[in-house]
Amino acid sequence: MENIIKDIDIINVEEAESCDFKVTAEENTGKTKRLYIESYGCQMNFSDSEIVASIMKETGFDTTSDFNNADVILLNTCSIREKAENTVRKRLSQFNQIKKAKPELMIGVLGCMAERLKEKLLEEEKLVDLVVGPDAYRDLPNLVGQAEDGHKGVNTFLSREETYADISPVRLNSNGVSAMISIMRGCDNMCSFCVVPFTRGRERSRDPYSITKEAKELFDHGYREVTLLGQNVDSYKWSPEENNKARLNKKEAEIAEVVYFSDLLEMVAKVDPKLRIRFSTSHPKDITDKVLETMKEYDNICKYIHLPVQSGNSRILEMMNRTYDREWYLNRIQKIREILGEDCGISSDMIAGFCTETEEEHQDTLSMMDIVQYDFSYMFYYSERPGTLAEKKYKDDIPLAVKKRRLQEIIDKQGQLSLIRHKREVGQIQEVLVEGLSKRSKDQLKAKNSANKVVIIPKGNLNIGDYVTVKITDCTSATLFGEIVN
Ligand code: SAH
Ligand code: SF4
Ligand code: F3S
C-alpha cells in the first residue's frame, strides 16, 4: 500500500525508510476558513484525507497548501513503523512554534497514530487540540466546534459499518487523471508484525454501487484511471442482506447478490473501456484465479499486481502469521504468469530482520526475489510495534546493523531486478496513459503503462489524460523512455 516512494530510484536504507508526506492543494471556493492537511503513510490515508477535506468543506473550510494561512492544521498519521511516528512528533514540535505566535491555531492528529495512542497523545503532545481516529471523521465538525470553545476533542471510536460510502471526496492528491477509490476499510488479518488491525479496526466492504457511481463520476470529469484501495482487496465481500437493502433502488435490489472482488472489478471495468482500473493491496492467501481471469478478460484492468511476500522463508512466514508458505506464494506467481503472461507487473513488500531470522532465511528472501523477478518492491527493516502479536510473542533480536545490512542487500537485489525487468520491455509497443509533465524537462511527459511503469515520452501534441501508443526505446532501473508510434 505504501506507494509514496515508488517513482524514484531507491539506493539506500535511509531513503527507503524516509517518511514522505502529501500536503493539501490550494483551493478557493469562497469559504471563510482555511484547512491544511499533511498526510503520512499509505494510499488509504491519502484517500481518507480527501474525505476529511470534504467533511470540513461542509463546515466552511477551503484547503490551503500553506500552513501559515491555516486556521486548522491536521496531520493524518501513520503508525506502521517507529520512524513514521517519530517523523510526526518532530513535525508537531515545529507546529508548536507557530502555535505560540498564533494561539487560536487549532492542531489535530488524525489516522493511525490517533487511534493507537488515543487520549495519551493529548498528554504527550500538549499542543494538540484534536485526536480523531480513522472511523470518526464525520464527527470532525463537532470536535472542531468543541475545540473552538476551548475543549480538547477526542474520538477514536472504531466502527463495524463506516465506509464513508456517501461522501464525495475532494480530490486533493490528484493530477486530474488518476484517482483513488476506497472500497473497504480495516483488516481482519493478524500479521504478527502489523499494527493496522488495531488502528483501522474490523474489515468491512463498501457498497459496490456507490463505488461504480464514484468511478463513473470521475470518468465524466475527465479522469482516466482509478485505483481501488483496501488493505486486502481480495477479501472484498458485500451482500445486500448484511447491508441496508432499502438504500438500493428496485433494479439494483433485484440483481444484488453477494459481490466478491472479481465481480467488483468487472463492474468497475464496465463503467467505460477508457477508464483504467488498478487495485491495491492483494494478499497472497486470497488472490483467486477468478480475479486473474477477470483481469485478463478486460483490457482496461491494468496488468499489475502488488503481492507483498514479506519474507521468502516459510518458518518466518509462519511466525509472521501470513498464513501462506513459500510454495503457496510461488504457486500464485506461477498462476499469474500462466494467466496474465510475462508482461504482467508484479511488486512486493519485504521486511528484513524479522525476529529470529537467520542468514540462511534472509537468503531465502533474496532467492525468492530472483525467482519471481519483481518489477519493484517497497522494502523495510523490521520495526517492533507495541501491542502487536510479534511484540508479545517474540524477541526483536536482530541487531539494527544486521537489519540494515540485510535490507541493503534486498534493495541492491531489487535494483538489479528492476533493471532486468525494464530492459526486457525495450523494443515493445505499448499503450500508455499520459499523467502529467515530466519533472526532467518541460518538453517531455510522464505516462504510465499497464504494468504501472513510468514511461517518459516527448510532448508532441499530447494532452494530459490522452492514451498513446509508444515504442519503448531505453530505460533505467526506475524509468522507461518511449517514442510515439503513429
Ligand atoms: N495490507 C498490506 C500491507 C500494509 S502495511 C499487506 O498485507 O500487504 C505496508 C507494508 O509495511 C507491509 O506490507 C510490510 O511490508 C510493512 N510493515 C508493516 N508492519 C511493519 C513493521 N512492523 N516493520 C516493518 N515493516 C512493516
Ligand atoms: Fe497488516 Fe497483514 Fe492486514 Fe496487511 S494484511 S494490513 S500486513 S495485518
Ligand atoms: Fe496506512 Fe500507516 Fe495506518 S500504512 S493503515 S497509515 S499505520
From TrEMBL:
SUPFAM superfamilies referenced in this protein's UniProt entry, alphabetically: Radical SAM enzymes (SSF102114)
Cofactor note: Binds 2 [4Fe-4S] clusters. One cluster is coordinated with 3 cysteines and an exchangeable S-adenosyl-L-methionine.
Domain MTTase N-terminal residue range list: 33-149
Keyword Iron annotated: yes
Domain Radical SAM core: 173-421
UniProt cross-references to InterPro entries, sorted A to Z: Elp3/MiaA/NifB-like_rSAM, Methylthiotransferase, Methylthiotransferase_CS, Methylthiotransferase_N, Methylthiotransferase_N_sf, MiaB_methiolase, rSAM, rSAM_horseshoe
Catalytic activity of the protein: N(6)-dimethylallyladenosine(37) in tRNA + (sulfur carrier)-SH + AH2 + 2 S-adenosyl-L-methionine = 2-methylsulfanyl-N(6)-dimethylallyladenosine(37) in tRNA + (sulfur carrier)-H + 5'-deoxyadenosine + L-methionine + A + S-adenosyl-L-homocysteine + 2 H(+)
Main location: cytoplasm
Location of this chain's protein in the cell: Cytoplasm
Keywords carried by this UniProt record: 4Fe-4S, Cytoplasm, Iron, Iron-sulfur, Metal-binding, S-adenosyl-L-methionine, Transferase, tRNA processing
Recorded superkingdom: Bacteria
Summary of the function given for this chain in its UniProt record: Catalyzes the methylthiolation of N6-(dimethylallyl)adenosine (i(6)A), leading to the formation of 2-methylthio-N6-(dimethylallyl)adenosine (ms(2)i(6)A) at position 37 in tRNAs that read codons beginning with uridine.
Assembly with partners or alone: Monomer.
Family: Belongs to the methylthiotransferase family. MiaB subfamily.
This protein's name: tRNA-2-methylthio-N(6)-dimethylallyladenosine synthase
Highest classification ranks of the organism: Bacteria, Pseudomonadati, Bacteroidota, Cytophagia, Cytophagales
